[in-house]
Amino acid sequence: xxxxxxxxxxxxxxxxxxxxxxxxxxxxxxxxxxxxxxxxxxxxxxxxxxxxxxxxxxxxxxxxxxxxxxxxxxxxxxxxxxxxxxxxxxxxxxxxxxxxxxxxxxxxxxxxxxxxxxxxxxxxxxxxxxxxxxxxxxxxxxxxxxxxxxxxxxxxxxxxxxxxxxxxxxxxxxxxxxxxxxxxxxxxxxxxxxxxxxxxxxxxxxxxxxxxxxxxxxxxxxxxxxxxxxxxxxxxxxxxxxxxxxxxxxxxxxxxxxxxxxxxxxxxxxxxxxxxxxxxxxxxxxxxxxxxxxxxxxxxxxxxxxxxxxxxxxxxxxxxxxxxxxxxxxx
Length: 331
Ligand code: UDP
Ligand code: MG
Known about the structure:
By secondary structure, this protein is an alpha/beta fold.
């Protein structure tokens, strides 16, 4: 059988590539079945008004409720893409999954619980037009939080910013508008222990803060209890500071100097007054204090080492189990 020469074969119709959207919305969602429909509707309404084209990416972070099914059902109606992670990887990783799959010229990260008023989008876009690469929301006040939480937050950011070259603003939210360049820079970072609020600052670029008042959560409860925040805080501290590792040299030197002075004092005292009652209580206190200080310093080493361990293992930060959208172009 003779083959037709190439020139006679039917011309291939290559579909022209879909133009990239102006804006991608990345929405991490963990057990947000009660909120997701309303959130998507609100995002859609605002985005239609503000930009020509947009995509919404919901990252279902291993939800146990119907978040994925609810989101899937919305795909017919909205320019929506739903990523389902294979399990709960945490908000930071869910955000990364969304950023990596987003294609818009700019990206907005948004919580799924409607706490962040979308009315600020317009201002954010205006600032972008003025030349800012990243426009982020900061909470105008934290009066609705307990004094304990405020104290911990304050202490955390103070510790985080000691000796760091990039100031990490307290009260900043993940709610922000970023240029593609900023998103690409964030996605290029290889680290797995991600503290996004630190990384946003680390990548640099021209940034602008916009003050917002947080609304109460639409339905459901916050996923970040004390334990969750503490864990995130430790990740933040270990990824952005080195002073807790170094401070022990200073503390060790101080304790050593004190013991030498104390030894001298004992020697002098013995020479003048002779041997008195054995100082067992001093001994016990000194041994316990030193034991405690040593355990703390080993614990701090352990925190850093455990992060080094996760980095060395090189496992991916998240696994995408399903990538769903109405046109299924991404499958
Ligand atoms: N979230 C997530 N994975 C988690 C925990 C939270 O994707 O493991 C999402 C959650 O669905 C919400 C956002 O992160 O869209 C913020 O969570 P939350 O409202 O619980 O935090 P808060 O507003 O109290 O800081
Ligand atoms: Mg919330």
